[in-house]
Each structure stands twice: as C-alpha cells, then as structure tokens.
Design a protein that fits this description.
heterotrimer; A alpha+beta (about 90); B alpha+beta (about 750); C alpha+beta (about 160); B: about 750 residues; alpha+beta; Aldehyde Oxidoreductase, domain 3; Aldehyde Oxidoreductase, domain 4; 7-stranded mixed beta sheet; about 30% helix; C: about 160 residues; Ubiquitin-like (UB roll); DNA polymerase, domain 1; 5-stranded mixed beta sheet; 5 helices; 5 strands
C-alpha cells in the first residue's frame, strides 16, 4: 500500500489525518482508492481526468511526469506539492 | 557513474579554471546579442502601451498610424488566432482590458524606429479607466477592484465561491503548531514580526530584443534574447497556432537574464508584424519598457511567528506569505513556502501562501524567485529568538539545522544536503570571530537554501576525424555554462578542453532543453553531456572491437585510451581511433537525453559587517563573506563569480532597489537613475568560501549554485544593522530614510 | 523627414564619413549606420555606461552625444582596442582574470578602463571603483573587474608596452 501525504487543505476530507495508506499500482489508482475512502479527494487533486497542472506529484522523492499514469510501488510515498521551477 | 566514486579520483579538467570560450568575442565586441541582429529589408517595430493601470479597452483605431508614410503594418490582439489560453494572448497583446501601465496594446512596424514611434503615438485607443489596486494587502480585501472579474481562489480546499484577486492559496501544516507555540510560551520565547518587500527588477543591462522573419512557405525564424529557446518556440507556436516544426528560435548571446528572460514579451508582436508586412521586423525594448512591461520579482507582505525553548530548541514556526502576482496569476509562492523554514528542523509548523493579482506587470522569476523576501523575514525572527535566548546566532542555527532526513513543514524530507557543513564552515571562518570595533558597527548572519531544478536537456557529441569533438546543447549560455559543460565532456572523454568545441544550438539543430534557469544547466545538462560522452565511448569501443576482432564487451576506456585486456598492441588513443571511424562504419555521434526529476539543494550562509551613519542612514558594508555548498565546483572561478554576483544583487535588494508606485498605478522610477543598481562603489569585496558536499545525482557531484547567493544578503544586512544601531528593519529596500525613521532621527 | 547631414570623423583610427539625422545619437550612428555593434545600449539616458566610447580620448556616454557632434573628431570604440599586435593588454587582462560573464557591459568597461589607465597608470582599488561607478555590471559584482584593471595596469607598465595603445 502506498503512503499518501495529505496536503493540509485536504485534511478536512480525511478527518484531520496527515498520512493515509491506499492501494494502487499507479498514482491514478491510488487517487481513486483514496476517493472511495474519503469522497472528494479526486475532485481536489484533478482537473478533469488529469492531475491539476498547478500541482507537482512526487513519488519517493522524485517528481513524476506521467501524472495519473505514474507507477507506484508497494511502499511508495506519494506527495502533492505546488509546482515550481527557478529563475 | 556515481559522484562518490568520482570524488576520490583526481580530475584532469573538472575543478580547473580555464578561460571561457566566449571571452575573446565578448572583449572584442564581436559577440552578437539580440539588439545587434540585422537582416536585409529590416523594419523596426514599436509597441504601444497602456498609460492606465486598469482600464477597459473600448476601441482601437489604427488607421491614422497605418496611413503614416514609412509605416508598413500595425497589429493588435485581433491579429492573434483564437487559442485556448486567453491569458497568454492578453499578456502579449491586450484584448478587452489593460491591467497595468505598460501593458501592450498594439505594435507598429516602420522603415525607421523614429517613424514607428511616431506612428504608435497616433494609434487611437478609447479607454474606460477603472480604479487600480497596487498594494497586495489592499488587493485581498473584498472591496478591492477585481482585475479578473470571474477569477476565484484556487486551492486544495476546493475553489472559493466568490471572485477574488487572490488567485491561489497554499497551506502546509506539520504536526500541531498550537501545541508547539504553547510549549514555547510556557518555557521559552516567541517572536512575531511583519515584513514588507518591494517589487524589484532583475536589472539585466541588455533589454529584450527580437527579430522575426518568415519564409514564403510559412516558416518562422526568431532571433531573440532568451534563457529558453524551446520555451519561446512553444510560446510562439501556441499563440500563433503553428506546428512546433514551423518555428525556429535562434539564441543570441544574452546580456544578463537572471530569470527575467524565460518568457516572451515582444516575440509574438515581432512575429505578427513580420508576417503582416512580409519583411523581417526587429523590436528592442527601451529601458523604461523593460521596467514597465517585462517580468519583475514580486513584492510581498510576510508575517512570521516562531517559538523556541530557553535551551535553544525551535518548537514551532508559522508564516503567512502574500505575494504580488502582478496582472496575471503565477508568483512562485510555493518556492517561498519551501525556502522559508527549509534550513531548520521544525517540529510543528504552518505556512499559508497567497498569490494575489494587482495592477502591476505580471511578475516572473528572479534568481531564487520569491526567496529573498522570506529569508529577510524568517532569518530576522531567528536572529531575534537567538538574541532573546542568549545564544550565538550561528550556534542557534546549528542546534536547529536541517540534516539528512529532516522533514520540512511542506512534508518533504531533506536528502543529501550540506546545511550543517556550511554553518560549521561559517562559524569557523576568521570573519566570524574577527573583532569589530567602533560605534554604529554590527555583524549579521543569515542562511538559506535553493535547489537545482533538474528538468530536461538534450546533448549531441560528434567526433571529428582528428579526435576533437563538437558538443551541442540547447542550453542557452548565460554566464559560462558552455565552458563548464565542455569541461565535463572533456573529463569523461579524457580530452583536453581545447579538443572540445561547445556551441548552443537553435531549436532546429538540437534536441529539447528546458530553459536555462533554476540553477539547472551545469547539473542537468551536465548529466546529458556525460551521457552523450558515454554513448560516444560505447560506439567507439565497438569500432575498436571491430578493428581488433574481439568481443565489444572486452574493450575498456580509461584515461583517454581504448584497450582490450592486457595486450599492449591493443591500444588506441581517442584521436587514433577517431581517425579510423570512417573506415569502420562511418561517423560517431553520441546522444544524451535527460529528465532530472529531483530537486537538489545548495545551502548558503553569509556573514556581513556593516557601519551605519547615524546622521544620514547610509549603510557601508565593511566586510562580506559568503559560504556555500556547491557539491563540486566544475569551474571554481565561475562558481565564485556566481556567488559574488548573486551577493551584489542581494545587496541591491537589501539597500537600494524597489519599484515605487503611486496610487493610480503609475511607476515612478522606471529609469536606471531612480531605480538604483549597485555600482562598483556600492559593491564590497566579497570573500567566497566553497564547501563541497558532493551531490550524488551528478556524475561529478556538482550542485546548481547560481541562485542561492542572492537570498541571504537582505537578511544578513538587516541583522547587522540591528546590531549596529539597535533597530529591526521590516522593509526592503532598507533605504537611509527608512533607517533614520526607525532610529527616530526623522 | 529632416534632411541628413554628412559627418566626417576618425573612428578607430580610420577616416569615416556617414549620413545621419540631427537627432540621432552617436550611439545610434555607431550601431545602426556604421555597423559597429560592439558598443551597447542599456538605457539610452546616460545611466549605465554600456555605451561608453572615447571622444578625442575622453570618456563619454555615446547615447548623450549627437552624431553630428563628432564632426572632425576622433572616436574610439571597443572594436578599436585590438590592433595588428593582437588584443589590447586590457582585453587580455579581462580574459585572464575572467572579468566578465554575460559580457554586455564589457565593451563599455574596457573603454572606461582605457580612459582611466591613459591618465593614471597605477590606480588604487578605490580609485578604480570610483572611476567605474558610471559603468553598471549586473553579473560579476565588480570584484573580478577591479582585479582585471589592476592586472591591465601592471601589463601596460611593462617594457615593450610603451608604444601607445
């Protein structure tokens, strides 16, 4: 089961939990599983059928480009952060 | 290829200080920058800009301008095809609203620049002037005029219900801040302060310049001053509705960028005029236009509260960050939120960040975007905590410093960082313990970190018959990366630097590269270079195998030579084998592509001694030391150059630089006289200390270094001013008038 | 359109004639009429020094001089520093000390340096910084530039460099 760090503004959906486990082989599957356990999560993270472009998805500390299709391992850690670059 | 292995081997090129490739052309005036480009039949373009900070555009009548002798064409937003992103189109040519003084309204091409300027002045625009809002804390009020009437606040809490100038809200929470502050209130100290920082400009001496030319079969070529040729290609293709392969962007030498030349401001208008007139068109911005209508760094309002126990342990940290996005959303508030408490181990924390639109130019990145303001804020609060607890400022930082695995308030864990090493080097530096005597003198410190962005690059290495190689990347060279990349190629290939010829290709001649920004080039493109060089070695090994009739996997490459086993006869130098390529299968071209998906970190700690004149408020910097973890200095001279250059820009932010707006949104200081950049008299000598904690993701351990040094100076100088004259500065720039006011002198 | 004036001047040692309008600056004439793009425009109002040239040996901002004003006078730009002997010692010093990054301010600074060293062969660091205060550099933080000027002064003081450069 992947460990998902819930962004602060979404903890109202998870009853305040900062960290939640969910099954799935891809980021998309994990989000779907999260949404079943905590309805509304998918709507906050996604715009249509894609991750909100304002968000960067990190799996095990690395930014993923494949969005919902990015693969996730058994003990992966998933994080959602504002997307940024440099100057 | 791991950095640890390389760190123990002596390098033959990496770590040396060769002269830069571009030096000869630059000292002779031969180097061609954007404004230097000329083509046969060239027309000169001029942009008409809004005189109002906020207005509805009711009509634009270009007929008088078009009729002026010498005018070949005029364009407006009407000339842009319909595309999805209305914002991107409106930014380059406004359609229904002007959102800041200087907003592009129309553009003219004429036979001379003087005629184009005259023509622009007789374009008739009817405006309905609207109230403007230029202060970020005014803009967040319900009563504020709305720039985008339907825009609502985006956040992970779901979209807000009512339209607002707050484009987005982010929040990070770690642990239980209330608990952390209660602990500090019980048995420690709490400090809470508010700070304001001004909008500032990157201050590149070369203005934006673009020259566009179309072929008769619909291919566009644009010569432009940019950090990212592929970004500009994408920008042009999107807004002009072209295939990417129809657009060729050719990089010119860049006369300074610092994050302000990632985006296109005049390229679309130039291309539109060139298409309309059928002739090449060039637009060069004036200095005033650069100030008014490019992408400055946002000002901010920042509130910081931190608590610590009496024995010097931080228990909680909290911040609210309000950044000016300018006319359209997109300030890098997320970056500010990462940096603000990043160098510390914070058990309980909360950060709220707001991206707020105001009637000012759309802000863009400036060397560690959004970081100097939060460092100015947090490092002063840290300083005050240390003072109240009675701990030495660096000692307090060391006790609470981030280490391997430390989780930040945003939840990410630090890995492979040199925070402690840098603090330790600063504390042990002679500057820190040198006596500082005399009235109104003080010493301040500040630390920060910034990362290297990573992202995508391509590289091609072609082998010449004499054993020299050409190295082409798409990474625009802003300050010396063509040399540092060539050094990395030479190192891998066992060549001398003279045997490697680097160049920066245009978008037709090389694979994709993300813009040269975010301190990424030496690191990420360096990885691509190493890969391309390894590809060359693999291909040439196969040729050696062919010539020796041995299996390819028995061929080794070491210290510039190919060998197979112990056989002394089986040895080719790189040059010897290069001479045999045409008879063994043809040319060898190595390719390296990379997408670096991790954010590396470069920590910096600065020490500064200042003297404040109690009558004039002038600050003199007596001594400045910058310590930074650079991983591995590929070219130490270039690294030192980044550190000194960044520090002096930071001094500019600290003491001199800031946009001044009136209530109507008119910029009062769009000149280099009234927006003061540090001169040779203002810049102190800067001692640089390079710390090397190798970055494992890079073949030689290098970290991106360019941005970190601009971040600490405002904070370090503010902390020094406090010790010099006992006042806490809560605004930058810390002008003499503001210092005297704080001191109660005026 | 106002009628143009013929201007005759000596530019980088060569007798040159060009046509310009009365309102065109020397900077514009050098860059757009004579094709000498080494001299740069950073602000066009005398505040950055990127357009520095020598006018009869004197340091000026060419954006503040009119083209017609150089009639009968001599102008030296960055393109005139190197000669048949190769790069000028000042140029060599800047390369050796790596006293540039983007290079945009470099032509103006080289010219300003020549103006200084022509008058004061051994300036102190403070004197160098004061002299160069009219030339903005945004990349280097000036440290390496000061070093290069001192190095250039040392080179010019060597025997063999007496032939005027």
């Amino acid at each position: 089961m992947a460990v998902v760090w819930i962004p602060a503004l979404m903890r109202d959906l998870t009853g305040g939990q900062e960290q939640v486990s969910a099954p799935g082989k891809t980021v998309g599957e994990v989000i779907v599983a999260l949404d079943e356990a905590f309805p509304g999560i998918k709507g906050r993270l996604c715009v249509g059928e894609q991750i909100d472009p304002a968000l960067a998805v990190f799996v095990d500390g690395k930014i993923v480009r494949l969005g919902l299709l990015a693969s996730v391992g058994n003990d992966s850690e998933i994080r959602f952060l504002p997307a940024i670059a440099g100057g | 290829m791991s950095a640890k292995r390389h760190a123990t081997q002596p390098f033959h090129v990496v770590g040396t200080r060769p002269p830069r490739y571009d030096g000869a052309d630059k000292v002779t005036g031969r180097a061609l920058y954007g404004p230097d480009i000329s083509l046969p039949g060239l027309l000169h373009g001029k942009v008409l800009r809004s005189p109002h900070a906020h207005a509805r555009i009711l009509s634009i009548d270009t007929s008088r301008a078009e009729a002026l002798p010498g005018v070949y064409g005029v364009v407006t937003a009407q000339d842009l095809p319909e595309t999805e992103d209305q914002t991107a189109r409106d930014h380059v040519l406004a359609s229904d609203k002007a959102l800041y003084v200087g907003h592009s309204i129309a553009a003219v091409a004429a036979s001379t620049l003087h005629i184009a300027e005259q023509a622009a002045q007789i374009i008739e625009v009817e405006y309905e002037v609207l109230p403007a809002v230029v202060d970020v804390m005014e803009a967040i009020k319900d009563s504020a005029p709305l720039l985008h009437e339907t825009m609502k606040t985006r956040s992970l809490a779901g979209e807000s219900q009512t339209p607002s100038n707050i484009a987005s809200h982010l929040q990070h929470v770690k642990g239980d801040p209330a608990k952390g502050f209660a602990e500090a209130a019980d048995d420690g100290v709490i400090v809470e302060r508010e700070f304001r920082t001004a909008m500032a400009h990157q201050g590149y001496i070369e203005p934006h310049a673009a020259t566009a030319e179309w072929s008769t079969d619909g291919h566009l070529t644009v010569y432009t001053t940019t950090q990212g040729t592929f970004s500009i290609r994408g920008h042009l293709a999107e807004l002009l509705n072209l295939r990417l392969s129809q657009v060729r962007v050719v990089p010119t030498e860049v006369g300074g960028a610092f994050g302000g030349k990632n985006d296109g401001y005049i390229d679309v208008a130039t291309a539109l005029l060139a298409r309309k007139t059928g002739q090449p068109v060039k637009i060069v911005m004036t200095r005033a236009e650069v100030f008014l209508a490019t992408g400055p760094a946002p000002g901010a309002f920042i509130r910081v509260k931190m608590g610590a126990t009496h024995d010097g342990r931080i228990t909680a940290a909290q911040a609210e960050l309000y950044y000016e996005a300018g006319a359209y959303p997109g300030a890098f508030v997320g970056a500010a939120a990462n940096v603000i408490f990043g160098p510390y181990d914070i058990p309980h924390g909360q950060i709220d960040g707001y991206d707020v639109v105001v009637n000012k130019p759309k802000t863009a990145t400036y060397r560690a975007p959004c970081a100097p303001p939060v460092c100015f804020a947090a490092e002063q609060v840290i300083d005050e905590l240390a003072e109240k607890i009675g701990l030495d400022p660096l000692e307090f930082r060391i006790r609470n410093c981030a280490k391997e695995g430390t989780r930040q308030v945003n939840g990410s864990a630090h890995t492979d960082i040199g925070c402690y090493e840098v603090l330790k080097a600063a504390r042990g530096h002679p500057h820190y313990s040198a006596p500082l005597e005399g009235p109104h003198r003080g010493r301040g410190v500040a630390q920060t970190y910034w990362g290297n962005w990573g992202a995508q690059s391509s590289c091609t290495v072609s082998v010449n018959a004499d054993g020299t190689v050409s190295l082409i990347t798409g990474s625009v060279d802003l300050s010396g990366t063509r040399t540092s990349l060539a050094m990395q190629a030479a190192e891998v290939l066992g060549l001398t630097l003279e045997q490697v010829k680097p160049s920066v290709g245009d978008t037709d001649s090389v694979g994709y590269a993300d813009t040269s920004a975010g301190s990424r080039t030496t690191v990420a493109t360096g990885i691509a270079v190493a890969r391309a060089a390894q590809d060359v070695i693999a291909q040439m090994s196969a040729r050696a195998a062919l010539l020796w009739d041995v299996p390819a996997d028995t061929v080794a490459f070491h210290q510039g030579a190919f060998t197979a086993g112990q056989d002394a006869d089986k040895r080719f130098s790189f040059a010897e084998l290069a001479a045999r390529l045409s008879e063994t299968g043809g040319p060898v071209t190595g390719v390296g592509n990379v997408d670096v998906r991790e954010w590396g970190a470069s920590f910096g700690t600065h020490i500064v001694d200042v003297e404040v004149d109690p009558e004039t408020g002038q600050v003199t910097i007596l001594r400045y030391t910058a310590v930074q973890d650079v991983g591995k200095a590929i070219h130490p001279g270039h690294v030192e150059g980044q550190m000194v250059g960044g520090v002096v820009q930071g001094i500019g932010l600290a003491l001199y630089e800031g946009y001044v707006y009136d209530q109507e949104g008119q910029l009062l200081n769009p000149t280099l006289l009234d927006y003061k950049l540090p001169t040779a008299l203002d810049a102190p000598p800067v001692e640089t200390v390079i710390v090397e904690v190798p970055y494992p993701k890079h073949p030689f351990g290098a970290r991106g270094v360019g941005e970190t040094p601009i971040v600490p100076p405002p904070a370090a100088i503010a902390n020094a001013i406090y010790r010099a004259v006992g006042v806490r500065m809560d605004q930058i720039p810390m002008t003499p008038a503001r210092i005297l006011k704080k001191m109660g002198v005026i | 359109m106002t009628s143009k004036t013929v201007v005759s001047a000596t530019i980088n040692g060569e007798r040159v004639e060009f046509l310009c309008e009365p309102h065109q600056s020397l900077l514009e004439c050098l860059r757009d009429i004579l094709g000498l793009t080494g001299t740069k425009e950073g602000c066009n109002d005398g505040n950055c020094g990127a357009c520095s040239v020598l006018l009869d040996g004197r340091l000026v901002n060419s954006c503040l001089v009119l083209g017609v004003e150089v009639e009968g006078r001599t102008v030296t730009t960055v393109e005139g520093l190197a000669d048949w002997r190769g790069l000028h010692p000042i140029q060599q010093a800047f390369i050796e000390e790596d006293a540039l990054q983007c290079g945009f301010c470099t032509p103006g600074i080289l010219i300003a340096t020549k103006a200084l060293l022509d008058r004061e062969p051994d300036p102190s660091e403070e004197r160098i910084r004061t002299w160069l205060a009219g030339n903005l550099c945004r990349c280097t933080g000036y440290e390496v530039i000061v070093r290069a000027v001192r190095s250039a002064a040392a080179r010019l003081a060597q025997p063999g460099e007496e032939v005027a450069r």
